[in-house]
Design a protein that fits this description.
binds alpha-D-glucopyranose; binds calcium ion; alpha/beta; globular; 2 domains; TIM Barrel
Length: 536
């Protein structure tokens, strides 16, 4: 990539769930040394950054999203030396490291919380959100936990309740306390000084809650989850957050080429966009695309909207998968067939924005099924059988056909998908027709063409509801992408005129049927073509 390119903008970011990537010491849990082992693989895949789900010490009530010490590495993953090594080895390969910062809440095992609950005069008492029972006795207000039940947990010793948006073992910090705020900002500097290239902020728009703890109004209509029966006016997205976002950005701007992306919680695309900008976060996540139906129209709409919200001033990103969502392969593909996944990847890697990939997406890993007793995710345990939780998308990476897919020599913390003997990295590396080979080729194409990795996007009117068509352009280069979301053969008439001499540079899903005749592009079921204009 040339020097005027920015890794996080023109490149690709790959999320690793460290627990499930590669175990090197046989304890059944992935570790940092395991990630180092596979950096060559990731370099060959063609990614520019890795986002690591949390690696700080955690009692694992929410698998790392309950942090008990912000200044070191969880021993099950390694230590600070291992982390240094990971950063150095990644940097040697032009791969950047993004850390997950979970600063809305801590673990209840964190020393600060332990102190906080000792007495109301303890210097840490005010670091968390303690409230008296309401005068009639009972809960301080009607706020609920996203993970189920009330958001208030009673503490016998203090005779007070503390607030938790997530599990009761994840008490929310009191960001209105100046010591909390400055400690949190120091955590950014601490890891930046260690050479970290960026951060993903966990549920950052939740840091502040209404200072008067007003009741949330109820919402009309029927909702399976009681949590959804309220307008979350007062327990999330408070205006005070914008200032913190600016402080965070100012810290990052003191270091070269750093990046911060925010997970906006319970917010629509337009609200998520308000936190992004020159003096704010570099990027935020959008769920409209992730949760879109499988149709050209629905994806086109989500892309157009998110893209327009960013305009020239900001740069969108897109993700299909993460550690909280059922994999897109499970949602969209039929059986073990990957043709739909190739179509989606062709879109994902050619829209304007940074594509995020989630480990295993490149080989089409599917969610595992779990019985009630196998569920480890606290959310799945609470909501089962209405919702089985998030373990399905967190199963061990499938490296090869050996026992446990080469993930561990011990007993994996979560079972491997039963398709691993066929669906694994080793097999797919040796097959030119595999999904993995497809990703590698397409990623290389994306890297070669400024229109794809840096250009603007214009959605074109399509003559058929199953076709999604857009043009990307940059530096005098124009690329046309035509995607067929339908089950039947489609013909697309290419735009004509003196600047429209199209050459087909990439086709997918049945290269024999995909072809051009005169100015028509013929595409089989789920076929697609990428064309370049040779006339300028
Ligand atoms: C975010 C994380 C999720 C976690 C929650 C609480 O949504 O992505 O995994 O459970 O925050 O930290
Ligand atoms: Ca291990």
């Amino acid at each position: 990539m040339t020097n005027n390119k920015l890794w996080w903008k023109n490149g690709i970011i790959y999320q690793i769930y460290p627990r499930s990537f590669q175990d090197t010491n046989g304890d059944g849990i992935g570790d940092l040394a395991g990630i180092v082992q596979h950096l060559d693989y990731l370099q060959e895949l063609g990614i520019d950054g890795i986002w690591l789900s949390p690696i700080m010490p955690s009692p694992d009530v929410d698998f790392g999203y309950d942090v008990s010490d912000y200044h070191t590495i969880d021993p099950k993953f390694g230590n600070l030396q291992d982390f240094d090594r990971l950063i150095n080895e990644a940097h040697k390969r032009d791969i950047h490291i993004i850390m997950d910062l979970v600063l809305n809440h801590t673990s209840d095992q964190h020393r600060w919380f332990q102190e906080s609950r000792k007495s109301v005069t303890n210097p840490y008492h005010d670091w968390y959100l303690w409230r008296d029972p309401n005068p009639q006795g009972g809960l301080p207000n009607n706020w609920l936990s996203h993970f189920g039940g009330t958001a208030w947990e009673y503490d016998e010793t203090l005779g007070k309740y503390y607030y938790h948006m997530f599990n009761k073992h994840q008490p929310d910090l009191n960001w209105r306390n100046p010591d909390v705020r400055s400690m949190m900002l120091d955590i950014f500097r601490y890891w930046l000084d260690k050479g970290v290239d960026g951060f993903r902020l966990d549920v950052f728009n939740n840091y502040y809650k209404d200072k008067d703890f007003r009741d949330n109004p109820t919402r009309k209509g029927f909702n399976i989850r009681k949590f959804d029966s309220f307008e979350h006016l007062y327990d999330t997205s408070q205006p005070e957050m914008i200032d913190v976002v600016k402080d965070i950005r100012a810290i990052l701007d003191q270091y070269p080429e750093r990046y911060v992306v925010g997970e906006t919680f319970m917010a629509d695309s337009a609200h998520a966009r308000t936190y992004i900008g020159e003096d704010r976060l570099h990027a935020g996540f959008d769920y409209a695309y992730t949760h879109s139906n499988f149709s050209a129209k629905a994806f086109g709409k989500a892309i157009q909207y998110w893209d327009a919200l960013h305009g020239e001033e900001a740069w969108p990103n897109y993700f299909f998968n993460n550690h909280d969502t059922e994999r897109s392969s499970t949602r969209f593909a039929k059986g073990e067939d990957d043709s739909i996944l190739k179509l989606l990847a062709a879109m994902h890697l050619t829209v304007r924005g940074t594509p995020y990939l989630y480990y295993g997406e490149e080989i089409g890993m599917r969610d595992i099924s779990l019985t009630r007793s196998q569920i480890q995710d606290p959310v799945g345990r609470y909501y089962w059988p209405f919702y089985i939780g998030r373990d399905g998308c967190r199963s061990p990476m499938q490296w090869n056909a050996q026992e446990n897919a080469g993930f561990t020599a011990g007993k994996p913390w979560l079972h491997v998908h039963k398709n691993y003997k066929v669906r694994n990295v080793a097999n797919q590396s040796n097959s030119p027709a595999s999904l993995l080979s497809f990703y590698k080729q397409l990623i290389q194409l994306r890297r070669q063409h400024p229109a794809l990795n840096a250009g603007s996007i214009k959605l074109l009117e399509a003559p058929d509801k199953d076709l999604l068509v857009y043009e990307r352009s940059a530096e005098g280069e124009r690329i046309l992408v035509v995607l067929n979301f339908g089950k039947s053969i489609k013909t697309y008439q290419l735009p004509t005129g003196e600047f429209n001499q199209w050459e087909l540079i990439f086709v997918g899903n049945d290269a024999i049927t995909s072809h051009m005749s005169e100015n028509n592009l013929h595409l089989p079921a789920y076929g697609f073509g990428i064309l370049i204009s040779r006339s300028e």
